[in-house]
Amino acid sequence: MSDQPSHDTMTPEERHRERMQRKKELVDRKIAKATIDRGVLVVNTGNGKGKSSSGFGMLARSLGHGFKCGVVQFIKGTFSTGEEAFFRHLAGDQLDYHVMGEGFTWETQDKARDIAAAQAAWTVAAGMLADPAYDFVLLDELNIALVKQYVQLEQVLTAVAARPPRQHVVITGRGAPDGLIAVADTVTEMRVIKHAFDAGIKAQKGVEL
Q1: Per residue in 69-103, pLDDT tens?
Q2: What is the distance, to the nearest Å, from the Cα of residue 173 to the centroid of all Cα atoms in its chain?
Q3: What is each CA distance from 126 to 25, 91, 123, 132, 149, in whole angstroms?
Q4: How far is CA 109 from CA 44, 48, 79, 104, in A?
Q5: How would you classify residue 167: left for phi > 0, otherwise alpha for psi between -120 and 50, otherwise beta?
Q6: In 11-121, where do the E strands start and end?
Q7: CA dihedral in degrees (34, 37, 38, 43; nearest 10)?
């Protein structure tokens, strides 16, 4: 007979340890199977808050590892944000930071101007994706430019597929096209449950700005 106590006679602490041991074994097996080492394509999409915030969090992590990083913001261009103020002072050998957008489309009300700005941003982004010196590239709000067809999806898919093998890329913005989702390694959809703006609370520094 086994000296191990049956599940029915275990104390809560023993049952907890048993569950955690099973979980550890499962996690260890998954880690052992994850042997591929290459750059990943991450897509953050959905209508909820946090798409860009997650991207900038990964930027901070990459900078902490000493990576050469590039940022291109496709939409946010008419107002200062906290991430821009924080990361811009790091610009130099380790970080290239480009705010290329003209602002939200309902503010510019000029489609030709929006297209020109998006194309200019894509030219900068495509240069980063082709350059093996960049370890991490954040293309903030590119999905919006793709949805509006200011940047063509095939251009993006071709550039992403041809990028240096160890380069990580994060693309944010609502409405990520199916073609982009299909080739991405990690896709997260942010879902709205509640948002302060709907209750009349204006955008706050440190939260939205």
Answers
A1: 999 999 865 555 778 778 877 767 899 999 886 55
A2: 9
A3: 42, 19, 5, 12, 16
A4: 26, 24, 16, 9
A5: beta
A6: 41-45, 69-73, 95-99
A7: 30
